[in-house]
Model the fold of this input.
Amino acid sequence: MSSIVYLNGEYVPRSEARISVMDRGFLFGDGIYEIIGVYNGRLFRSEQHLERLQRSLMAIKIEHQFRIEEYEQIIQELLEQNNITTENKYIYIQVTRGISTTRSHNFPKPSVKPSIFMMLDDLVRPSFAQLQKGFKAITREDSRWKDCFIKTISLLPNVLLSEEAIENDATETILIHNGYAIEGSNSNLFNVKNGVIITPPKSEHMLGGITRELIIELAQQNNLPIKENNITLNDLYSSDEIWVTSASRDIMPIVNLDDQIIANGQVGPMWQQMQTIFQGYKDAL
Ligand code: PMP
Done:
């Protein structure tokens, strides 16, 4: 565990970091977050993640606190204070609307300073053997709100949906909205059919993943056929391959969905290809 965290301008041991019970993050889940991978001690796609953080702040009307470079400076300081030089970690950043004196739904007036918290944690990756075997997922109706493009800390539906996967010996819950598979409870979704990689188009019903964007970019650069298209539940069951992607999981192949075997139940060749390209891209940074 990386023990020094950043909280409102100070670097303190995680066990000593304290925040008021009047913080709106605690009372209302009124805040946003971001997660950035750190590979071999280096930030991965931090600009894209920090731009999304700024967009989330804007969407919930929290005034920008720092410029992207300022967030990066704090993160660098955090890496140094925790002696991170070659490890794989992730950075968690949370910004809430701040601490008010009374509990009211309405924004504090005059406005208060947002609370900013950052910590490092271990990136737990599936082993090579687990990846080669593939993973199980389940599907559930999407019970979230309609502004899923905001990376809000109000994650109760995601938490409950994700837990259902665990209860069913699966690793992810794929969410169905109006008959279409949208994304996972904490990942984006791809499938492969007849040699074409498909991912649902971006909309307010999903989080535009940074990993998703990179996979689209890498597929295009490497002449792998890819398109954004709606995916029905039946499309998913009859897929040649299914993947879920995120900054903390990279690209996970799903070989079993709702206890149905996908294709031949083996990890597919397109995943192998994309995984090699993705790993090569990361190693080259
Ligand atoms: N969708 C949801 C709902 C998520 O929580 C995440 C992970 N934060 C993603 C997609 C993947 O986004 P990213 O690739 O930026 O980690």
Q: What stands out?
A: Residues 35, 183, 186-188, 207, 209-212, 245-247 surround 4'-deoxy-4'-aminopyridoxal-5'-phosphate (CB under 6 Å). The CA atoms of residues 68 and 264 lie 45 Å apart. The longest helix spans residues 269-283. The chain has a mean pLDDT of 96.
